[in-house]
Amino acid sequence: MEEGRNNLAAHxxxxxxxxxxxxxxxxxxxxxxxxxxxxxxxxxxEEILQTVQFQKxxxxxxxxxxxxxxxxxxxxxxxxxxx
Length: 83
Fold this sequence. Notes:
InterPro entries: Metallo-depent_PP-like. It is a single chain. By secondary structure, the protein is α/β, with parallel strands linked by helices. It has one domain (2-74). Helix content is 35%, strand content 16%. The chain has helices at 2-10, 25-32, 40-51; strands spanning 17-20, 56-59, 66-67, 72-74. It starts with a helix and ends in a 9-residue tail after the last strand.
């Protein structure tokens, strides 16, 4: 996690895309309707969500395909072109 923070800081906390397995705690709350518990990983990703500027964030784990909003995309079986 510290390496991730350092790498992001080295790039002024700006990236085009973020690709993770889980998502940030607040996003998990929004898609899970109380089904999922916060943990160390989702809280770390919440920190990233609050501090990093990005165009799109792709994540899986929750076995669904949907756009959470214009920047956060949950992918399970769907394949999309990003560039």
